[in-house]
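Hey L., structure's done. Input below.
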Amino acid sequence: MRPCIVVETCITPGQTFVNRHIQHLFGGAVCVIADRLTSDAPKDGRYLALDDISRPMLDRLIAPAARLKGHLVHGSNRVPWGAARRAVGDFLDQHRPDVILAEFGPQGVALAPIANALGVPMFCYFRGADASSRLRHTHVQRAYRRMMPRLAGVFAVSQSLLDNLAAVGVVHPNAHVIPSGVDVRRFVPGEKRPGSVLGIGRFVEKKHPLLTIRAFAEASKNHPHAHLTLIGDGELYEPARALVAELGLGDKVSLPGALPHDTVRAHLERAQIYAQHSVTARNGNTEGLPTSIQEAMAAGCIIVSTRHAGIPEAVSEGETGFLVPEHDAVGYTAALAQALALAPEQRAAMAQAARDTAVARYDNAALLTRLEDTMRASLR
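Output:
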């Protein structure tokens, strides 16, 4: 089967799950349609960038009417029209994929009408903000509802995202939960550093890094060798550095910024505890099922996190980690303290349980096979 992948930006290091689909789904994507291409995208004719398509004068003249038509008919003005629509049609006719997989909801909305017109079955994968914060907009809800009958099936990385969609009337009879997963052969436990706590992700409201720093400061008072490393960058990075200085934690907290994926993997191998206080942002943005938590479990880390989105679907409380309500600073501090104070045999048992869970449920090779099998069965 020859797949076409549809994505907003190709190729970006942070979207390892999309990159994996491009490289490996049904042996590798025959073609890719993106809004924009980065310098890492191959220049071999298999990649189409919608933003690079030149607009003739007629397209510019009819642009307001075309966008209005898209909004009225499809619930979105993102559906390609004019020269862009012709380019997409010619591109798909040239490469002749058997199936299209849209990564994220907005990409599904944009391409589903064209896929239907050309008779190419299409699936859509929901992963986080596309099925959380975007749902606050009624025009997005309407666009998703109109997209559903045009799809052969729907995937989501967690049940919580399917529940979000269903709550606003966006449902599909062929919907499946398939996490992105991790390479459990590369993410493995290493020699753990006693008292090591690690967090990975953008320094943004949804990750609440400042709460993690404050909780660690309190939880580690009786553990002089405990050390917190938070990897990532973002708008809260400088406030986090200021907070570390304010609390006098320069020797106990490291903020190295964004790091290469292999370096992150090495940190996970050595970390005993993985801490991530995920919350629902004020704009409604949530996690799906964080890849970093799946990677941490594969690396044998004990998880300290929140009952948020798909995280409780992965972490068994008291067995592979500890979970608290969102914004519960007292509970989160207590959970970190409890994880730091575990007896060696308890720590080893929980770490092994986390690793076993990742191998059994989040092996990305097995999940890719499940995705392929589900798509084949749907099309049969």
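The chain has two domains: 3-181+363-379, 196-361. The two ends are 12 Å apart (CA to CA).

-- N.
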